[in-house]
């Protein structure tokens, strides 16, 4: 059994999510102590508990400590089940996309459909548009296809959104080291139960930041269980680099658009081939299939993710900081549960 202190590195939910994924994939049990030890409110919150219970359902795990507020978790996986239709109701605005991060690697090549009810566009997590456009764009370059659909949006604090993920398949050794020439730039702004003019202002501000590129603007009026808005900006070349920004009370629409565009440009200018968010997410897939990539900035999340992944015997090498490269020479493909 692997024993982990949950206060190391970024000391948050990323440690738990990565442990769950690799435990289920390899059949390796773990015990996590001091869960989210570096957070103001440590222990399992609803979104983390939902991730634990979801992965446990997929791999028929025996679990101890899966209660709200728990600071210790013991997880003993069995075989991954299929066919399976899993419905997860977080009950709050807990991030549906972060829960998907733990589940998608388990779904590849299996008849598993997941429906998650919770927050689709909430702070400190990728938005559903980021997952559909940027994450899936990178997955295509890994040889993975799949579907991520938004039934309705859910925002903080109410939640109530719904995302469905299914039909994930493929995957193989990959090399994503160059962004190359930018062939496409998209600004995607949406509103739910707010004036569409807000989305147009966000998109205009983002486009002005991206004045050196021809920009394709997409404005959407969405369904959801509360008011909200967000902007996603992404650049597409040999790879995809993106960033999003959420609206908030007192935050001007122009600030939302400018924030997303500025973050994308900052990552792009490092010479990396993937953005700072994908820099840690892609590490999982390099570990599964073998591969290499160049990230824009080595974040604390990415460094922590690497440490957790190495606990499962993955030969993972990181060089540099901004940009940085990741190379996996001994992937898990032959050792997947």
From TrEMBL:
The keyword ATP-binding applies. It holds the Pfam family RTC_insert. Catalyzes the conversion of 3'-phosphate to a 2',3'-cyclic phosphodiester at the end of RNA. The mechanism of action of the enzyme occurs in 3 steps: (A) adenylation of the enzyme by ATP; (B) transfer of adenylate to an RNA-N3'P to produce RNA-N3'PP5'A; (C) and attack of the adjacent 2'-hydroxyl on the 3'-phosphorus in the diester linkage to produce the cyclic end product. The biological role of this enzyme is unknown but it is likely to function in some aspects of cellular RNA processing. It is an enzyme of class 6 (ligase). Its main location: cytoplasm. It comes from Sulfuracidifex tepidarius. One of its GO terms (biological process) is RNA processing. Residues 9-312 form the RNA 3'-terminal phosphate cyclase domain. Residues 179-267 form the RNA 3'-terminal phosphate cyclase insert domain. Keywords: ATP-binding, Cytoplasm, Ligase, Nucleotide-binding. Belongs to the RNA 3'-terminal cyclase family. Type 1 subfamily. Its EC number is 6.5.1.4. It is found in: Cytoplasm. This is RNA 3'-terminal phosphate cyclase. ATP binds at residue 101. One of its GO terms (cellular component) is cytoplasm. It catalyses: a 3'-end 3'-phospho-ribonucleotide-RNA + ATP = a 3'-end 2',3'-cyclophospho-ribonucleotide-RNA + AMP + diphosphate. It comes from the Archaea. GO terms for molecular function: ATP binding; RNA-3'-phosphate cyclase activity. The active site is at 301 (tele-amp-histidine intermediate).
């Amino acid at each position: 059994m692997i024993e982990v202190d949950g206060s190391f590195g970024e000391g948050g939910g990323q440690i738990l999510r990565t442990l769950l994924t690799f435990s289920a994939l390899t059949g390796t049990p773990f015990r996590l102590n001091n869960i989210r030890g570096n957070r103001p409110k440590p222990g399992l919150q609803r979104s983390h508990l939902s991730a634990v219970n979801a992965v446990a359902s997929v791999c028929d795990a025996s679990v101890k400590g899966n209660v709200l507020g728990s600071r210790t978790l013991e997880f003993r996986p069995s075989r991954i089940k299929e066919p399976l239709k899993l419905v997860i109701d977080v009950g709050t605005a807990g991030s549906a996309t972060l829960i998907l991060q733990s589940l998608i690697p388990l779904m590849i090549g299996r008849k598993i459909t997941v429906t998650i009810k919770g927050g689709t566009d909430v702070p400190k997590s990728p938005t559903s548009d980021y997952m559909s456009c940027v994450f899936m764009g990178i997955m295509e370059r890994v040889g993975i296809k799949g579907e991520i659909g938004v039934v309705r949006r859910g925002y903080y604090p109410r939640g109530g959104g719904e995302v469905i993920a299914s039909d994930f398949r493929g995957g193989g050794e990959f090399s994503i080291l160059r962004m190359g020439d930018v062939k496409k730039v998209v600004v995607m702004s949406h509103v739910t139960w707010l004036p569409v003019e807000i989305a147009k202002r966000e998109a205009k501000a983002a486009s002005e930041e991206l004045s050196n590129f021809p920009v394709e603007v997409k404005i959407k009026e969405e369904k959801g269980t509360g008011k909200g808005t967000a902007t996603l900006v992404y650049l597409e070349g040999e790879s995809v680099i993106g960033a999003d920004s959420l609206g908030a009370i007192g935050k001007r629409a122009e600030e939302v658009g400018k924030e997303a565009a500025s973050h994308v440009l900052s990552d792009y200018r490092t010479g990396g081939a993937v953005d700072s968010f994908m820099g840690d997410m892609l590490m999982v897939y390099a570990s599964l299939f073998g591969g290499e990539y160049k990230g824009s900035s080595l974040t604390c999340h990415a460094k922590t993710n690497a440490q957790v992944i190495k606990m499962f015997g993955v030969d993972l090498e990181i060089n540099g900081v901004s940009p940085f490269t990741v190379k996996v020479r001994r992937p898990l493909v032959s050792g997947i549960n």
